[in-house]
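Case 352 in the screening queue. Each case pairs one protein sequence with one candidate compound; here the compound is adenosine-5'-diphosphate. For every case the pipeline is the same: read the inputs, emit a complex structure as tokens, and attach any notable structural observations.

Predict complex for case 352.
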Amino acid sequence: MKLAIVSLGGNSSIRILKEASKLFRDVTNIHVKKVEIGLKTKSVELNIEGNKVKDYDCVYIRGSHKYSNMQAAIAESFLGKAYLPTMPLSFNLAHDKFLTALYLRRNNIPIPTTYLVESRNMAKKVLENVKYPIVIKIPSGTHGKGVMFADSLESAKSIIDALQVFNQPYIIQEFIEGSDEGISDVRAIVCGDKVIACMKRKASKGELRSNIHMGGIGEAYELNSDQEQIAVRAARCVGSEICGVDMLLGREAYVLEVNLSPGLEGISNATKKNVAKLIAEYLYKRTKEYREKESGVKDTDRKIDEVVTTLNVKAGIIKLPSSVSKIAGLIDGDEVNIKIKKGIVKIVKKEE
Ligand SMILES: Nc1ncnc2c1ncn2[C@@H]1O[C@H](COP(=O)(O)OP(=O)(O)O)[C@@H](O)[C@H]1O
Ligand SMILES: [Mg+2]
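Case 352 output:
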């Protein structure tokens, strides 16, 4: 099987590529800046230096938000032809913090209260009615740049005045207070229906942004199963099987954003896990499944796990062991068909 990683050639992408080369027959890095795109009514054509881009079994697209339209077009050109961990429009969605919040909310995922303001006058109205401190951010910022904090109406107003120069919309957001020693910020790497690595990030002294790029220190952290489900659902609603979900653990777990190209160095050091290897293994497993499905290997040919247990029924509600939902990859909110016959209950997830 052949894998292409489309990226800017950063360290994390190259690490994944190296790990993947132990599994895939052929691996290539395609530099996103070298791709030429042509949209036609019936096709999306990709060329590199005048040559048509080859066929692949898996195309994993990473890289900066600056290229989100390009990334969407590359994904589109492989849709239905290769396994894509991230859907085309996810690139535009995830790279905009406000659009992400819009989708997360639609899917009942907790978010901090978030306002989008287009002008100084709009901002002033919002600022007079919020509780301080607040966070002000640029929808497309990364690495903590473009995130500002204000502890009073006065300081918020001066930030808003400065932002007027850029003449672009910005976000005003509720500040989420950490519940545990003031450390609330969590980065979880999601692969499919699991969190494969997770760290808490503590901001450096005198800093409220806990990004590793801002000097934040990561420490391995284990999410509880409700928090893990929130991360998995956030990834799913953005349309990406492999991503970094940023959460703030306050009164509940709030999702801040979804990163489609998470850096791996900080989280690998913090968790002592080879995250690149785990991602490469996931890519391989899903690509194999994708090709099997295409070549008609029936679901019934796959191994079925069996759990022998005594049924737990409370107030008429059947409670299944957590291993059952884990093996089945089912999470809260999944749409399923339940087939029932005396003595038999069969739960089948609806095809996406
Ligand atoms: N609403 C908030 N409440 C508290 N801290 C926040 C909030 N929003 C952002 N932060 C802090 O700022 C950091 C960067 O914010 P984020 O929205 O993830 O932007 P970026 O894309 O730049 O990482 C977060 O990791 C967190 O430490
Ligand atoms: Mg972030």
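Case 352 observations:
- The chain has a mean pLDDT of 91.
- The longest strand covers residues 194-202.
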